[in-house]
Write a structure and sequence with these properties.
Helix content is 19%, strand content 42%. It is of the alpha+beta class.
Length: 143
């Protein structure tokens, strides 16, 4: 992949909503046995379909306990790439976390998001190839 496709994407991983510079959508992931027929947003990754953003995820103390926040990050990246008419990119993630997370949990969250550095997935019928090359952590006042 060439350097011209290297971009920064900011994602705020709130409990209620995932926020990027250009989008906001509910923080919810519903695994599906097949392609979701009525989902607003649908994601296919690692042999599984997911409905994204229908409702809100139940509050959990540890956002790394399942793949949901990785899947929500993939959706956020796809939404931003779609606005740029891109389907592949080297992505530098700028991640917003609640202020209470900015200690030890932020390091766990960084490792969690970067554990799969190359993501090949389909979002809303478009195939994406994303290489996560760096993650920068910050914090948000609202989660």
């Amino acid at each position: 992949m060439n350097e011209s496709n290297s971009i920064i994407i900011a994602v705020d991983h709130g409990y209620g909503n995932i926020k990027t510079v250009n989008t906001v959508f509910p923080s919810n992931v519903i695994p599906c046995d097949g392609e979701p027929a009525f989902a607003q947003d649908k994601l296919y990754w690692a042999g599984r379909w997911y409905a994204i953003g229908d409702g809100h995820k139940e509050f959990i103390d540890n956002k790394t306990q399942d793949d949901d926040y990785l899947l929500l990050t993939m959706a956020a990246i796809a939404k931003e790439l779609a606005l740029m008419n891109l389907t592949e990119a080297q992505v530098h993630l700028a991640v917003g976390l609640p202020l209470t997370w900015f200690g030890q949990q932020s390091e766990f969250f960084s490792r969690y998001l970067l554990r799969v550095p190359v993501l090949d997935y389909t979002f809303n019928d478009v195939d994406y190839h994303v290489e996560l090359v760096k993650l920068t952590r910050g914090f948000s006042f609202v989660s």
